Amino acid sequence: MVEPIRATTRADRESLLKTAAYNLFLLKAEDVTIDLLTDSGTSAMSAQQWGRMMEGDESYAGAKSFFRFEAAFQRIMGFKYILPVHQGRAAERILFTTVVRKGQIVPNNTHFDTTRANLEYVGAQAVDLPIDEAADFESPYPFKGNMHIPKLRELLKKEGPARVPLVLMTVTNNSLGGQPVSLSNIREASQVCREFNIPFYLDACRYAENAFFIKKREQSQGRRSTREIAREMFSYAQGCTFSAKKDALANIGGMLGLQSEEWARKCKNLLVLTEGFPTYGGLAGRDLEAIAQGVDEALDETYLEYRIASTTYLGKHVAEAGVPIVHPVGGHAIFIDAKAFSPHIPPQHFPAQALGCELYLHAGIRGVEIGSLMFGRTDPESKAFVPSRNELLRLAIPRRAYTQSHIDYVVEAILDVYRNRDQIRGLRIVEETSPLRHFTARLEPII
Ligand code: F0G
């Protein structure tokens, strides 16, 4: 299938961006030339996936497609209970609503925004425990996604299983630059959890990319297949939340995997109530087929080699020209450090959002802000603005969608914007809702 790409003029984009209130989520996709908003649900599906979709069994209960879905996940991950859901955040909501209580704490290497929001929604506290190297964008440390093990131990020792119902580990660590987590870090985190009798779960959205990084970067892992490494990663976990929109190369879908019979039973009760019967979980039989095929294809090392090379190519070419990015380049995206790119814009004027708007105005490229628009807060007491720790613009690469020439176009556009970076102006919010205000906020440029 060929999808046309619409070319627009700068004058078109100025008007389109104004109508979208300087929020890139509010643009129409057809008005975007290269869409790097997300790698989620944007994969091009393979001929095998389309073929399997024709075999979708749309029975309400006990569909063949479910058993293929279940078998595919069990082969790769080994979890006993496989619950289909409509996407990753549904798995989060079902798990947290079932096992997390108000006032409890859930640690993670770094929570993704929906994970954090779903925990806060049930009244729990989401605590991030990244390693120190993650804060240094220049550090070449190969596993900057790792969890800070001494801090994890300290927290579990202080709070214990009564206050910590589970520990999560996000692979790869999306919010901190798509950085991988090492196999030894996953093993250590799971051992600490076992010491305190606390379940250890993976947020496994990008498990295949993480496993490939382990193969490439971790000592003594180079000779193993990505599949074997993935299997070992999952062997340390008692379950996972999973978005099939990433490393299952599907356009929709998700999964909640569990080993605990008791948790699975409780989660299924809620699943029936809000997603659907446990053999379809809010998905069509044909979606289950596409996911079952895709979750396996994502482990293909030729595909992974190309994917990681393409992301690295983009990062390398802009970094060589001086553009400040998070190093080393992660799996699914490059992250431009907008604080360093436009030091003249203070955090309260959203430097990464301003950079995203400029890249759209210049070349029709859409990225996403991971900074103070997403994470900044107003302190409820002092009413002071509390900025996000980082101001990043993420350019995420959809899987199997763009070619080298598209990536070259992106490199050129970033370099043009970089040369004229002094011209970028900050933004102010004129209307917002919460939580997750970045999806809907309306902004205007500061003249
Ligand atoms: N966990 C991580 C690490 C994610 O990156 C995402 C989604 C989710 C959970 C939720 O999954 O979208 O299927 O509900 N990330 C997308 C992104 C939206 O653009 O990074 P979902």
Outline the structure in words.
There is one protein chain. The chain is an alpha/beta fold and 447 residues long. The protein is built from 16 helices and 16 strands. The strands form 6 sheets. It has a 5-stranded mixed sheet, sandwiched between helices. A 3-stranded antiparallel sheet has the order 9-14-11. α7 links the parallel β5 and β6 (200-203). The protein starts with 9 loop residues before the first helix and ends with a strand. The site of ligand F0G has 15 residues, from α4 and α5.
Distance between the termini: 44 Å
Uncertain segments are: none
Tally of separate helices? 16
Please report the total strand number as a whole number.
Answer: 16
Biggest pleated sheet: 5 strands, mixed
What fraction strand? 5-15%
Question: What labels would you give this structure?
Answer:
single chain, 447 residues, alpha/beta, 5-stranded mixed beta sheet, 3-stranded antiparallel beta sheet, 16 helices, globular, binds ligand F0G
Briefly say what this structure is.
With 447 residues, this protein is α/β, with parallel strands linked by helices.
Map the helices and strands.
Blueprint: H1 10-19, E1 34-35, H2 47-53, H3 64-77, E2 81-85, H4 88-99, E3 105-108, H5 113-121, E4 125-128, H6 149-163, E5 167-170, H7 183-195, E6 200-203, H8 207-217, H9 226-235, E7 239-243, E8 254-258, H10 261-274, H11 285-297, H12 301-320, E9 333-337, H13 338-341, H14 351-363, E10 365-366, E11 368-370, H15 372-375, E12 377-378, E13 385-386, E14 392-396, H16 404-419, E15 427-431, E16 442-445
Parallel strand pairs: 1-10, 3-4, 5-6, 6-7
Antiparallel strand pairs: 2-8, 7-8, 9-14, 11-14, 12-13, 15-16
Helix pairs in contact: 1-14, 2-11, 3-11, 4-5, 4-10, 6-7, 8-9, 12-16, 14-16
The chain binds ligand F0G.
Ligand F0G binds at residues 38, 40, 87-89, 112, 114-115, 170, 174, 203, 205, 243, 245, 254.
